[in-house]
Specification:
Layout: E1 26-28, E2 34-36, H1 37-42, E3 46-47, E4 52-53, H2 58-65, E5 71-74, H3 92-103, E6 109-116, E7 119-126, H4 137-153, E8 157-163, H5 171-190, E9 195-203, H6 205-208, E10 217-220, H7 231-238, H8 249-254, E11 260-261, H9 267-278
Parallel strand pairs: 7-8, 8-9, 9-10, 10-11
Antiparallel strand pairs: 1-2, 3-4, 5-6, 6-7
């Protein structure tokens, strides 16, 4: 039957010349808005019109903050051991290696120093894609060493937190990082070196209970989830319904635990302005 046959071929593209659309070319927001990833990147990974702050990691934050994306990374090759010989569904070292291969990260935090609008700044930034941004021995040690760098060089310190809390595979060793990082921050305070803590979505658990809330200035991105335990756990514990927007950055600021909320598109300018004021 002729309608199943192609009688007029017209101009055909040779098979070898066809190209596939690359992955990740478009981003779809939860509300359904489609945006080109190049436009999203140029807008500091904030969806225009919606002002939705897309969750990003250290690579993107370093690019946003450091002048010309130029920085020196600290303790690049530090990675976790297996002191407790932890085994859940798989051995801990195997999970670490698989996550490293998948994320191209050594652990859940990267630390670096460079310039932000011409001002010296040391930054520690957490990566949620690495086992939920969980705080283990490497995370605590790298943050402590970054604080030491700030102490020695008298450079302001910025902590960008995004974490589900302590890393269960390291148990008590993970919880010890709360005390270690808090003690180093106390030294930073004695040295009168500024510490700015930026809380992003989500910041929870032992991270919230330690270094994330100890800044000279505690700031957050719009809509970030900030808390110690999750809303469901708290609701079941106290037996009451929680207020609307509970644990959002706006709610936390309203109740006095944040100094201000910063739109990511103005993050670099706002931080550099603050640092100049502190000088």
């Amino acid at each position: 039957m002729p309608w199943f046959k192609r009688t007029d071929k017209g101009i055909l593209t040779p098979t070898e010349s066809k190209r596939e659309v690359p992955d990740g070319l478009w981003f779809k927001s939860p509300s359904g808005k489609i945006i080109h990833t190049r436009e999203l990147k140029n807008n500091a990974y904030v969806v225009p019109e919606e002002d939705l702050h897309v969750k990003i990691g250290s690579e993107e934050y370093f690019e946003i903050l450091f002048d010309n994306n130029q920085f020196t990374e600290l303790d690049v090759n530090m990675e976790s051991g297996d002191p407790l010989k932890f085994v859940d569904t798989k051995p801990y070292p195997k999970r670490i290696k698989e996550t490293q291969s998948k994320t191209q990260l050594k652990d859940a935090v990267r630390t670096a120093y460079g310039k932000i609008n011409g001002l010296d700044l040391c930054v520690a930034c957490m990566d949620f894609t690495f086992i939920g941004g969980s705080m283990g021995s490497v995370v605590g040690e790298k943050i402590a060493r970054a604080i030491n760098h700030s102490l020695i060089t008298k450079t302001p310190f910025l902590m960008i937190s995004r974490s589900g809390g302590a890393r269960m595979m390291e148990a008590g060793l993970s919880l010890m990082q709360m005390a270690k990082t808090s003690a180093r921050l106390a030294l930073l305070d004695e040295a009168k070196t500024p510490y700015i803590s930026l809380l992003t979505d989500p910041t929870t658990g032992g991270v919230t209970a330690s270094y994330a809330m100890l800044g000279d200035f505690n700031v957050a991105e719009p809509g970030a989830l900030i808390g110690f335990a999750g809303p469901r756990v708290i609701r079941e514990t106290i037996g009451k319904d929680l207020p609307k927007g509970f644990q959002s950055a706006e709610f936390v600021q309203e109740h006095g635990f944040l100094d201000f909320i910063i739109d990511r598109r103005s993050l670099k300018q706002r931080l550099s302005t603050l640092l100049r004021m502190l000088q």
